Amino acid sequence: MSASETSRYVRLRVNLVLEVTERDQLTDAALRRIKDDEFMPEEERAHARAAVREDEAEALAYLVEPFQLVGEVPGVELVQASWSSERSAYDPDVDAWHLDEEDADEEDADEEDADEEDADEEGGTGARARLL
Questions:
Q1: What's the first-to-final CA gap in the chain, in angstroms?
Q2: Helices and strands counted in the chain (H then E)
Q3: How far apart are the C-alpha atoms of 6 and 111, rounded to whole Å?
Q4: Torsion (CA) 89, 59, 44, 13 in degrees, nearest 10
């Protein structure tokens, strides 16, 4: 792909930490979503129900829909999405949970890699625009 073709695509990364305050409400909502999913095969539906009843992270995964996050954003089309959820021991005082700092470190590393790739392709120093 040329640079003009790849510049049309944007990877949006979102990290969320959620506290489950009402397990029963979360589970019930996920079970309703599974029941109402007309495209889910019955065998998969039975497995999904069991997983949702056992694990809040599974319940949340059935309720979070990436398309709902960007479906109404003008001028964009969702091309690909993947997501996962997992239980986590959360401690807001631990440095690893300071998402801004972690993201800044990742962005710095990504920018260095992109600059190196651009320099290799163009034979000079690279530049990259960052969408915020």
A1: 23
A2: 6, 0
A3: 16
A4: -70
What is the token pair recorded at 92?
Answer: 């807001």
- Chain centroid to CA 130: 19
Whole-angstrom distance, CA of residue 45 vs CA of residue 26: 17
Going by C-beta distance under 8 Å and a sequence separation of 6 or more, which residues neighbour residue 58?
30, 48, 51, 52, 85
* pTM score over 0.70: no
Question: Which residue shows structure tokens 């792909």?
Answer: 1
pLDDT per residue as tens digits for the range 102-115: 455 555 555 555 44
DSSP secondary structure code for residue 2 in this structure: -
In single-letter form, the type of residue at position 58 comes to: E
